[in-house]
Task: inverse folding
């Protein structure tokens, strides 16, 4: 007998040896679930309104009315884009996240707004004295899953079972300004949609995930 | 179910749920991350779920997410899991620890979908029908994946391949699982 030949059930129990303590923050999970639910409920009327706009827009286009408004809207959007492209790219720097017990996934590259679900805190600490391995790499994975599964309605109305394309993500280190503006932990890693330049444009260093 | 009961119930059930997740995905850290996703989804559906259907619903989400995660990890060629569980213990890797590693290494050699079937059938003790429902596959597929998975696991463990390695399924009435889990919930 080598401990394995008692059947697969015994082998599975053996594989569970050394199980680390549970590190889940149930209150935070409930809060995240509640936020997600509120967002889904809010998305339904918004979707209806958007559908109405599409229908009205289609009717206007077909009847040839309202062209002036449409042109003006396009010009405004175009001018906004031009203004944003003339700014000089900020310098990219890097830093190691010093807070390992909390991290964040952000909906957009904006650290100043506290809108619901703009950022979601991810508990990464666990109770294991040895930690949970490479938490920074796991953060990218978690935020990627949140985008893929549209957990917080960042990809539109939430529908269970649907998956979405994950945008390019980058991890930055939150600074004092971000902490003061939205009560996040200074020095924590945060994942945003964007590139390293996105971190620099917000005045944040890119997180050195291996640190 | 009443949302006020959410935290209490999931706190009671999180450990066994995480174990199933771990056995399928192969890494404690990822298992816990997946549990966060599972629990948020569960919260969203909480008001629609009957107490008797809770375990089946959770098994369905866990299985799908954990299999996806294990398949992604396999595609990336990642080696998961052992360092956080052993680092810092300061003791030599003795026979017991080595045995645990052997089992985990053997499990990783079983393809994720087959591993999920084995975990649900022989660790979680679901019936063929319940396993098929959880994984959204046919009962015939459960049986064939189970046979292949058992063979792969025995080979990986260095055991002679024996068709009757797994214990025969215990006869139990329909709804056994639901009652068993309900009893656990009531604690």
Result:
């Amino acid at each position: 007998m080598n401990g394995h030949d008692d059947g697969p059930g015994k082998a599975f129990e053996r594989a569970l040896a050394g199980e680390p303590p549970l590190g889940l923050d149930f209150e935070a999970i409930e809060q995240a679930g509640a936020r997600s639910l509120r967002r889904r409920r809010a998305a339904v009327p918004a979707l209806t309104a958007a559908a109405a706009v599409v229908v009205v827009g289609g009717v206007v286009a077909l009847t040839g009315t309202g062209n002036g408004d449409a042109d003006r809207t396009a010009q405004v959007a175009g001018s906004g884009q031009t203004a944003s492209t003339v700014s000089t790219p900020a310098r990219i720097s890097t830093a190691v996240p010093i807070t390992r017990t909390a991290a964040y996934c952000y909906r957009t590259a904006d650290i100043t707004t506290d809108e619901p679900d703009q950022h979601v805190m991810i508990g990464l600490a666990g109770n294991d004295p040895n930690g949970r391995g490479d938490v920074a790499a796991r953060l990218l994975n978690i935020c990627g899953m949140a985008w893929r599964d549209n957990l917080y309605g960042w990809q539109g109305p939430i529908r269970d079972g649907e998956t979405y394309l994950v945008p390019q993500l980058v991890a930055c280190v939150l600074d004092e300004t971000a902490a003061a503006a939205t009560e996040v932990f200074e020095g924590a890693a945060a994942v945003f949609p964007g590139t390293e330049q996105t971190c620099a444009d917000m005045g944040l260093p890119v997180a050195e995930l291996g640190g | 179910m009443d949302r006020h009961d959410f935290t209490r119930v999931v706190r009671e059930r999180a450990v066994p749920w995480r174990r199933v997740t771990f056995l399928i995905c192969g890494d404690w850290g990822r298992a816990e991350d997946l549990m966060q996703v599972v629990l948020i989804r569960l919260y969203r559906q909480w008001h629609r779920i009957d107490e008797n259907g809770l375990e089946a619903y959770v098994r369905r989400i866990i299985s799908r997410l954990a299999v996806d995660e294990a398949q992604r990890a396999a595609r990336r060629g990642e080696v998961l899991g052992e360092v956080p569980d052993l680092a810092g213990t300061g003791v030599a890797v003795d026979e017991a620890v080595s045995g645990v590693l052997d089992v985990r290494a053997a499990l990783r050699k079983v393809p994720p979908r087959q591993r999920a079937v084995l975990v649900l059938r022989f660790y979680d003790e679901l019936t063929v029908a319940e396993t098929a429902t959880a994984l959204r596959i046919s009962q015939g597929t459960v049986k064939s994946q189970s046979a292949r998975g058992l063979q792969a696991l025995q080979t990986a463990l260095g055991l002679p391949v024996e068709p009757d390695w797994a214990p025969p399924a215990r006869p139990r009435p329909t709804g056994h699982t639901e009652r068993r889990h309900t009893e656990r919930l009531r604690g």
Q: What stands out?
A: Chain B touches chain A through 53 residues (CB under 8 Å). Residues 132 and 139 of chain B are 5 Å apart (CA to CA). Residues 79-93, 173-187 of chain B have pLDDT under 50 and may be disordered. Chain B has one domain: 3-81+94-162.
